[in-house]
Amino acid sequence: METDILDIEPFEISSIRPPTENYSLSFRLTRNCYWNRCAFCPVYKLGAKYSRRSLDDIIRDIRRAKVIDDFLFDRGFGIPFYSENDFARIRPLVDEVNRARWEAGYLDDEHDASASLPPGTDERMKWFLTWFKDYPDLEDSFQHIINWRIGGGKTCFLGDADSLALKPDFLINVIKEVKKAFPMVDRFTIYGRTASASRVRSSKDLKALARAGLNRVHFGLESGSDRVLDLVSKGETAEDHTKGCRRVLDAGLSCSVYVMPGLGGEELSEEHAAETARVISEISPDFVRLRSLEIFPGTPLEDFIHEGSFTEASEETVVREIRQMVESITAETILYSDSASNLLAVNGKLPDERKEMLEEIDAYLSLSTREKLLFSLRSRLESFNGQYGGLTEDLHQMILPMVHNGKIDGEGVADEEIEAAIKLVRGKLMP
């Protein structure tokens, strides 16, 4: 039976999700972050409020996603397969749906995200917030379904920030509803806080989630140093990290952890790297993912810099931290550098590929100061191009004087100008 066009409505999408879930179908079980005190995090600092959604609301969204998926198939999408070309076909379809709903007397809510921003919001934050929507519209929902189908149509992420804070039965019911609507989904993942895994959820709870179909929990460890964790108001300890992650692994769930080189600044750099390596060695997570620190406007960490209590780690210091971690981690794990905030693409299995990763790092450290600057600029531009599919006009104009014979060589350009270009590019990258 063909989908009734009047039944088509947008659903809420978890904009903040791990890179490995970029192609996952996503639903919001909660909105935003209840902790929201981490000094480095800009995501929820502009008025976003935490709330828990009802099971009825989530089931409604799952059904809306199913309706859109069916409607796209009715209109010839996915035959013989989904592709990037399908995105160009969305706009006329959205216009048709909106016109039909308007003619039938439906008055759909409209949300202007920019209207809710505090006066004087930094331009860099405005740029990021164009990519994160609390209330996606119909076009966003269509794009999300197509993106999921292009990615294989088998994975689902349940957000937002800490789904382990929810009662297991609630999460289990959501998983059941998703499976009912989308039986092809065979992997479910969530974000969690190690404090929830170690202090709130029991081993019995976690095993029940594993039996229900949850596959992986993503944890933001950030650091294994209690001094660094306290400095940035993480609200968790190294013991929470170790106990929580081990409890998840023992329950039969996969554990993916994120660490943040540079988070200790220049002052706590060595301790940050050493203690993080120690905690990872004790946990033996399936994956360790690097997210080098970026200082965002309006965050407490930016205030620390202005106050003089925190010195941002240089790029070389950050690379040396990564080197120390790669050299010191004794656990069997897979390390990924899958964030645009990272300077180097250091990837591999530890301990098997330790030597190759160290060689990659040392190749950078052996460069001259000028060569490091040019390397950084090229690396950041490549990341930007990968994220956005091309350069913005301001970036294009800035790097134009540095390009000769189709290559960025910086000839005749002062170090300060290259540093300014790097800063501009980094300011637009999403970690």
Overview of the molecule:
This protein starts with 24 loop residues before the first strand and ends in a 5-residue tail after the last helix. A hairpin with a 2-residue loop joins strand 11 and strand 12. The chain has three domains: 168 residues, no CATH class; 174 residues, Aldolase class I (TIM Barrel, Alpha-Beta Barrel); 58 residues, no CATH class. It is of the alpha/beta class and 431 residues long. The longest helix is centred in the first third of the chain and has 20 residues. Helix 1 packs across helix 4, helix 5 runs parallel beside helix 7 and helix 14 packs parallel to helix 16. It has 16 helices and twelve strands. The relative contact order is 0.10. The chain has an eight-stranded mixed sheet.
Record field, number of beta strands: 12
Q: What portion of residues is helical?
A: 40-55%
Q: Measured on Cα atoms, how large is the radius of gyration?
A: 23 Å
Unreliable runs, pLDDT <50, ≥5 residues? Answer: none
In CATH terms, the superfamily of the largest domain is Aldolase class I
List keywords for this structure.
3 domains, alpha/beta, single chain, 431 residues, TIM Barrel, two-stranded antiparallel ribbon
Fold topology:
Elements: E1 25-28, E2 30-31, E3 51-52, H1 55-74, H2 90-103, H3 123-129, H4 138-150, E4 155-159, H5 168-181, E5 187-192, H6 194-200, H7 203-212, E6 214-222, H8 226-231, H9 238-250, E7 254-259, H10 269-283, E8 287-290, H11 300-307, H12 315-328, E9 333-336, E10 348-350, H13 354-365, H14 369-388, H15 393-399, E11 403-404, E12 407-408, H16 415-426
Parallel strand pairs: 1-4, 4-5, 5-6, 6-7, 7-8, 8-9
Antiparallel strand pairs: 2-3, 9-10, 11-12
